[in-house]
Amino acid sequence: MTAKTKNLARISPYFRRLCSHRLLKSVKILTQTSILSPVRSKSDRLLGQLGSGQLEKLLKAHARSFALTLSFLPPVIREPLSLGYLLARASDTVADAAGIPRERRLELLEELQGLLESELFCWKPRIGHGELSSSELELVEALPMLMVTLERHRDRGEILLLWKSILKGQSFDLQRFTPRAPALSGEELEEYCFLVAGSVGETWTRLIANYASRTLLRPPAEMEKLGISYGKGLQLLNILRDRSEDLKLGRHYISEVSVPEMMMLAESWLNQGAQYCSNLRPGRLRYASNLPLRLAFATLNRMHRSQESSKVKIPRWEVYGILIKTLPSLVLPSRRNPAS
Known about the structure:
Elements: H1 3-32, H2 42-62, H3 64-71, H4 75-95, H5 102-117, H6 134-141, H7 143-152, H8 156-176, H9 186-211, H10 220-248, H11 259-278, H12 284-305, H13 316-325
Helix pairs in contact: 1-13, 2-4, 4-7, 4-8, 5-8, 8-9, 9-10, 10-11, 10-12, 11-12
């Protein structure tokens, strides 16, 4: 190896990281010059800017992968979805806290559900020393602020409905998976996928219908159904990929004998997600909606080829490649758009 080759090899990792950073920045600039500039009052804009900064900081710390998708959405839709995600992530942190006895985690979630039913936005769970990591504690301690934001938010109804659905799924996890519990039935699995992810597709679509209805190429009710299937497909794919680790934690979502059938079901639901994306007009909303779908299909393809699904991971270079390939969805109709 020549001295010049050695130098190139030495700087190439840095060069690749630099190019990747600049690529992501360029993609974000392109998406932010696209459609939808909501008209809001001065007070709404001020509240939105303050809320957005705090939400963005929490998202970067606790939801890097989903934060990437959210970052491409118009602010009027990004803010309520970001808030809903962080609320659900905070309650999920409590639900999954191994340092807290299972019975007390259930009590905490039931306490939260009771407060939300009464529309009392003031939950501060009792967490003992060492029961959560510092990162987890940061998110849970942000709950009072997040709930005040929820109470004052213009989309409170939609966010609250979403959080209640996800909370129901989180409680189901704790109640259903007792020691030596069998795998979920088909009906239980589909209901669970709807509660924790299909509901996200439903809310995502309702917000688009509320703020950018011209983006939808099919009636909102039809798009909601496709959005629900899309969300269920993403969740089922996660379950299939993580099933070995989940089983170690006592969560027996699917039996190994049913894996081929579940792979087909996940692909079927994701194909409905493809229909969903192709029925959005070109722009930021379709770009953001398309990104998880492309990542999901890339993951599914790798799982078909791998013997160990838990080790399947999309490398960063492939993520950036997907970001580039889906750029036509910003400007081209589906019939001329190779990403659709």
